[in-house]
Design a protein that fits this description.
This protein has 386 residues and is α+β, with helices and mostly antiparallel strands. 25% of the residues lie in helices and 29% in strands.
């Protein structure tokens, strides 16, 4: 993040007052419980946001070399992204054109020169072109459809890989990020090094999983023994970028920066700088590394999260691989034991039909904005980024 940008955010914090009330949203809002429980709404979200919209697939550093590939699923559509010999990218439906068997197991990354179907050994080039149908003895020579893998749109910029799961219409990355590209571009994501990825599934709506990252108000109670001694729980610095947003929490020692001359101040040592890119991404700059959450809704009350950690460069003696893995351990330990365990109970309460609505207060501006953005996109029946 540019230094001047850090200073702008610190200026907002300085002007917010000792209780940070200057960071509050203009008004509270009410969200119906059905936003988390209604099956038809859930299908609309899958269709307009996760299938027809643009989603963040991975960071560029996860596929650095020709032949590197990764399989992910969005809205039930299995996708395979492959780094080509010329270092461009191809995104394809991860299904053999013979009988639709997956070529690469979902969630797996790898490296190779061809893809071979595990069912009948049909093989494909890195660009999805059918190479061979072994043992068929001409039995498919009369097939008139193109049997190359189905292609979908993919784009790469600012160290991020984006795909359109259903369609080949080109992706305008700047339009999707809607202004967040300046911040994200200065984090140097393309130069980071992927350390480790883990996948979890929990019984909660995908928005409920994001909600827990959208405010710091709960830190004082839910995380009283883990995070509260270190992090401020009064409010967060918030900005919108179209449907996307920045939410910056901070450590409770940040006020010491205001004892320095303005030009010497820095946000990075104190901030948990989060970017919500609708619909599926939460990317976090956490002092000295990047954490990323990619969400895949599985059912109205079931979500898969792919959680990754990245170092700003190759691990060193001072910060070896184990250092970053420990950070990932701590992240999942706190979120799983404290946040997601409670979110699952909240999901059950909402599913009971006994609670008509939830209240989001002015102290929770990212929470208000996230749901307003999703509602606006669904109301317009237009995918994110268009």
């Amino acid at each position: 993040m540019r230094h001047e940008r850090q200073l702008q955010l610190l200026d907002r914090l300085a002007k917010a007052g000792p209780r940070r009330t200057g960071l509050y949203a203009e008004a509270s809002t009410i969200v119906p419980a059905s936003a988390y429980t209604d099956p038809q709404r859930f299908e609309n979200e899958l269709d307009f946001l996760f299938r027809g919209g643009v989603v963040v697939f991975a960071l560029s550093c996860e596929l650095p070399q020709p032949g590197d590939h990764q399989a992910q699923t969005f809205g039930g559509i299995p996708l395979l992204v492959v780094r080509q010999p010329d270092r461009s990218l191809r995104a394809m439906v991860n299904a053999c054109r013979h009988r639709a068997a997956p070529l690469v197991e979902n969630g797996r990354s790898g490296h190779g020169t061809v893809f071979q179907c595990p069912y009948h050994a049909w093989t494909y080039e890195l660009d999805g072109t059918l190479r061979n149908r072994p043992g068929s003895a001409g039995a498919f020579d009369d097939v008139t459809v193109n049997c190359d893998l189905h292609q979908v749109a993919v784009a790469e910029r600012y160290g991020m890989i984006l795909v359109r799961p259903r369609g080949r219409e080109p992706i305008d990355v700047d339009a999707v990020l809607a202004g967040a590209e300046d911040d994200l571009g200065h984090f140097g994501l393309a130069d980071h090094v992927h350390i480790e990825t883990r996948v979890i599934e929990r019984d909660l709506n995908w928005k409920l999983l994001l909600d827990t990252f959208c405010e710091s108000y709960h830190i004082r109670t839910l995380h009283k023994d883990t995070l509260a001694p270190y992090f401020d729980s009064t409010c967060v610095i918030h900005e919108s970028f179209g449907p996307n947003q920045l939410s910056c929490g901070f450590r409770n020692t940040i006020d010491r920066e205001f004892d320095k001359p303005r030009d010497e101040r820095s946000l990075l040592p104190y901030g948990t700088i989060q970017y919500f890119i609708v619909p599926n991404l939460l990317i976090v700059h956490q002092i000295d590394h990047i954490e990323m959450w990619r969400l895949e809704p599985l059912a109205v009350d079931r979500t898969r999260a792919t959680v990754s950690v990245y170092a700003p460069g190759p691990p060193t003696r001072d910060k070896p691989t184990e250092y970053y893995v420990k950070n990932l351990d701590l992240l999942l330990e706190v979120t799983d034991a404290e946040d997601f365990a409670l979110m699952a109970r909240i999901q059950r309460s909402l599913g009971s039909g006994s609670i008509p609505e939830l209240v989001y207060g002015r102290i929770e501006p990212p929470l208000i904005r996230l749901h307003a953005a999703i509602n606006d996109l669904l109301a317009g029946a237009r995918p994110a980024g268009e």
